[in-house]
Amino acid sequence: MLNTIVVPHSESVTSEQVELAVDVLGRLLPLVRAQEVVERFSAELLRGLHHPHEKVRNLVLKQVLLCTEKDEAGIVSVITNRGLLLAVVGCLGDKTLGVVKVSTNILVKICTQNAGLNSVFSNESVTVMQDVMAISDSCRFAVYEFVVQVCLLGDMSLGVVSNSGLLDRLTEEVTTGDVLTQLNALELLTPLALNSSGMALLDQGGVIAKLQYLLSLAERDPMAALLMPGLIKFFGNVGHSRPRQMIEEYSSVVVMVLRLASGSLDFGDSTLQMVAIQTVAHIGSSPEGKFALAKFKTEIEEVLDVLGSKMRVAPTEQRVCALEALVHLFTLEVEYQTEDLTGLLEMWWASVCGMNLEKLVAIARQPFTDIHCPALGLINALANMPWGQRFICREPGLIEYILDRKTESEKPGKEAKWTIVETLVKSPSASSIFTEYHMEQLEKFYRQGPFFVEAQVEVALEEGQN
Question: How far apart are CA 99 and CA 89, in angstroms?
């Protein structure tokens, strides 16, 4: 019966009729196996993919997606129907984002199988992709996004895509065209650079060298300076993923980012400095990243000094950025707490606030949630390390402040304080640093949870009673 139900496709048909037909098919199709639908009704599906109504194209694509997700046989059913496969590839150029997204999911799923990978990147399919790329900039980048997703499936996929020439076109976009095109290309290349094989391919193709060159031009070329945010984020992600490689092979990039973060390299754009600060924090969020940044002793100490200043005196957005960066830099899980690493962070803290928490606590006591909560988050990061616990213990009134629920009227603040208490209670070193009384109070606070409210007892007196 299904083959007699054809979605209307003529100028005389109203949108309401199309939607009704889609609704009927949407109820009927689940009654039939997706693979059977693809095999028995391929002509109808192909017609649906060329239908002017978005809902029809989406309906067909979702059916094809179900077929590919079921098992390998479903993928075979799609790739053996060349017309249907090429039509799905053509949907990468659809004017509707939803259609592009589903078609991308289908093709990536097909590429998980070797036979599917070779079919999707056959000469015929690549020609269709090239035709799609010629439609518009957005269509071109839709193909690029799909190509990168396939590259991340594995080394074989990376090799097949590379041989198609499509990856070369993407890497060329980084150094040609307008700034917006270059930034978009950089963003797409970032996940590829986080993959070891992808990074090797980019390196071999000279892409990384070109990016370093563009970064070096920024100080004297205003157009190159516009690429700085994208370039910094790109190398920051590489540094986060492989910090050792970053300092060994791209040390000049690290120095530039650190100088931007400290303000010693100034392009007159505070936003660029915030991007650099976030990038330093991203690199230094892992134990390996902290050690990598420590190799640049002078530069990182200058950055820490600036962060210490900005968290106290700067526009609110910059203060929040500085506090959040410090949280990343000083967060160190117990299992990674070696003597060298905790010693390094204690030395870093001296560059931020000296040898106490007075300045940080003053910020934490401020009533503004956007400043108050990141400051409590930084106290929590310090509370996870023995030297930080000693600072907390020595800071007059700090434990009492942490245990005082009355200072918090909003959910984020209540949770932030409870998290500090949780960190201290679960720390293996806290009991040897804090007094027995304080540990009992912390454990009681922890057991009560973040939203505990002390019951208020009121006594009602009869009228006339004193």
Answer: 11
